[in-house]
Write a structure and sequence with these properties.
13% strand; alpha+beta; two-stranded antiparallel sheet; 4 helices
C-alpha cells in the first residue's frame, strides 16, 4: 500500500510465499485469512514500524492510505498501548536555552 510522506511515497506491503509442500484444499474465507496471516514472509506491520518510529510516516497518513482496513487501526492502537503515554516533544528553541 502506498503511504504519502513529505518526501514522496513509502510502500508498505505483505509478502506471502506458498510453501512447496503445502496442499491447499477448499476452505472458508476466515480460515484462508488465518492461513495467509500465519504464512506471510514479510509482514506490513514489521515494515511500517521503522518509518513510524522515525517519523517518515505519520499515523494519520498510514490510516489515510487504508481507511477501511481495521487491521491498520488495531495495529496503531496496539502500538500506542505498548508505548504508553506520549511525552511532549521539546521545541527546538528550548534546546538553546
Amino acid at each position: 500500500m502506498p503511504v504519502a510522506t513529505k518526501h514522496g511515497v513509502e510502500n508498505i506491503c505483505d509478502l506471502f510465499v506458498l510453501p512447496k509442500e503445502a496442499v491447499l484444499e477448499p476452505m472458508r474465507y476466515e480460515d484462508l485469512e488465518k492461513f495467509l496471516d500465519a504464512e506471510r514472509a514479510l509482514r506490513s506491520q514489521d515494515r511500517v514500524a521503522l518509518p513510524l518510529d522515525s517519523c517518515r510516516i505519520s499515523q494519520s497518513a498510514f490510516k489515510k492510505a487504508a481507511p477501511h482496513n481495521s487491521d491498520v487501526h488495531e495495529f496503531l492502537a496496539e502500538r500506542r498501548r505498548r508505548k504508553g503515554p506520549t511525552q511532549p516533544r521539546e521545541s527546538r528553541t528550548s534546546l538553546y536555552h
